[in-house]
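S.,

As promised, the flavin-adenine dinucleotide run. Input:
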Amino acid sequence: MSSDDACDCVVIGAGLSGLVAARDLRRAGLRVLVLEASPRIGGRMQRTRLECDAWIDLGGQWVGATQDRMQALLDACAITRFASPHVGRTVLHFDAQRYEFSGFFQGFPEGDAPAIDAAHWQDAMNAWQRFDALAQSLHGEYPHQNAHALKLDACSLAQWIDANTSTPFARWYFEYMSRAVGFLGPAEPHEVSLLHALWGQKSAPQAEHPEAQLMHGGAGQVPALIAAELDEVIRVDEPVVSIRERGDALQITSTRATYRSAHAIIAMPPCNAARIVFDPPLSSARQLLGAQMRMGRCAKVLLSYSTPWWREHGLSGLAMGNRPCIELVADSSDPSMSTGVLAAFVVGDRYARWIALAAPARRDAVLDDLAQYFGASARHPTSYHEVDWPQEPWIGGAFAGFMPPRAWTECGDALRVPHGRVHWAGTEIAPRWAGFFDGAVRTGEDAGRAVIDLHRASSHAKGKLF
Ligand SMILES: Cc1cc2nc3c(=O)[nH]c(=O)nc-3n(C[C@H](O)[C@H](O)[C@H](O)COP(=O)(O)OP(=O)(O)OC[C@H]3O[C@@H](n4cnc5c(N)ncnc54)[C@H](O)[C@@H]3O)c2cc1C
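Predicted complex:
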């Protein structure tokens, strides 16, 4: 398609949500163009191959059994899944003490608990019960539509933690959940609205185990499989800078060309969409949303070893704790390969301190923490990859965007309302599994369906067949 041809819809952003929307539009017979700012498609879904032939996911990797839109997509792509490896004991490292236990915790613990002071453990569990009860009191598609939402949105998660915990372990437990769990950004507790945190627990519950499965070949293979249906309509290295409504069409200008299109789908986090100039301008609430929603500060570090040696020590490869750098690490080894892979996360204020170090010091900090969790063998990986997501110019963070206090009540209504001929997609606006792959697939499907309906209605009105 040349820049002079009009198309039915331009999809802006070739992450998972944009690719799903474009695929559906194409299948419905619409003329589609996809414009992607970066030199590669996939957004937060990326993989790379190691010398030993194993794939590692640099972005998202896990999927849960109840994430039905993502599960359906994986089935359609013939991507098989395996249970996230969890054979052996979990490690907790808290205040310089190391504990091994048979269960794990993200939300309510499952299996045996670590042998920390019983009163401290109980304090955390009681607080989690209150947190979950409050989360379950929220109803509807979005949290700010609840009568008591204003009060919950006015405070930060940190304020709730202060009022509901009395021991250092319970406090850290919630701080860890805030920094390590997908629905929260991740964010430091003082950065995030209590309402946002509760909504995550309701609409993307840890109890449904969103980290239960991994994909053979990695999640990062998905974008290319969807794009195989779209290849000649995707243009990379072409950031969109402005969208102007002119008569009955949009004028969409990238750094390379201007395109005419009946509709557009913007498939990215609201804070990134805010960098595009709109004429007419976006509503004040949508502008506020773009300014308020923040991306999580998180780097992912992937280490591979010739074997998953930690299993020989009876360890599952899952560890968490208040170490200076790595608060969460998980075994991500594909059972069809002999290679052992650990995925570790550096988040929030820890990320800010760590990224300021020189590369060798960063690596030492990661290896020091892993050695504390698993033993000295962790110091000798065969490969080491750091992915600094906040520095990615067209992404700006990981895992996803989150709302600071008052943002839901001030601009939550603007999350999905189209701006004339411009529609929105992207995991951040999903009513369920926001922040996850599944949320991206849902919003891509929804935005595609909305544009297809409008296109058909206007074709009918003009008496055209399609
Ligand atoms: C480290 C990490 C770990 C994660 N772990 C998991 C996990 O285990 N399980 C899970 O379900 N989810 C996980 N996620 C989240 C998951 O990856 C995302 O929810 C999903 O990939 C988001 O897709 P998207 O299409 O909404 O947005 P994106 O992937 O961000 O796509 C947006 C696209 O828009 C492009 N763009 C931005 N501005 C412009 C512009 N002006 N013009 C044109 N293009 C533009 C960007 O380059 C990008 O390609 C993780 C993410 C990260 C980074």
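The domain at 81-106+211-215+297-398 is CATH 3.90.660.10 (Polyamine Oxidase; Chain A, domain 2). Residues 12-18, 35-38, 43-45, 59-63, 182, 239-240, 267-268, 272, 275-276, 300, 389, 394-395, 398-400, 426-427, 435-437, 440 surround flavin-adenine dinucleotide (CB under 6 Å).

- D.
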